Amino acid sequence: MALRGVILLILISLPALFASADEKLSAYQVLQKYNFPSGILPQGVVGYELNRDTGEFSAYLSGTCNFAIDSYELSYKSTIQGVISPGRITKLKGVSVKVLFFWVNIVEVIHDGDKMEFSVGIASANFPTDNFFESPQCGCGFNCNHLNAFVSSI
């Protein structure tokens, strides 16, 4: 009788276990919950970890990711880490931007209304939030159409 009760309890619990696994948000959805546009991460995030108590997070790409947007060259390491809170990412590691001839680390990101502020420590730059609604693609950023046309013609 006890075995039958345990089996029944397991069968009742299975849907709840599968539902909680299906409800795990993507890294892009988590960004949105913290008031960030999903486009601050490139396409291809394969996983993430988040400590909801401290805000410490890690996002994982399948490899390094480089692309150019306008006059900026960006580089993402395969692991991006930081501390996230509503509208602010601090202690950011794994994201850098080329300024003139030097690569500098982006260490903080602030979303304030219709602008995004990216800080490299001693300097920062502001950009319109709507520039980050779409995630760039590794290798080509937002200018990927010419690559697809080239590949399809081979």
Automatic annotation (TrEMBL):
Keywords: Signal. The keyword Nucleotide-binding does not apply. Residues 1-21 form the signal peptide. This is Uncharacterized protein LOC111305054. The gene is LOC111305054.
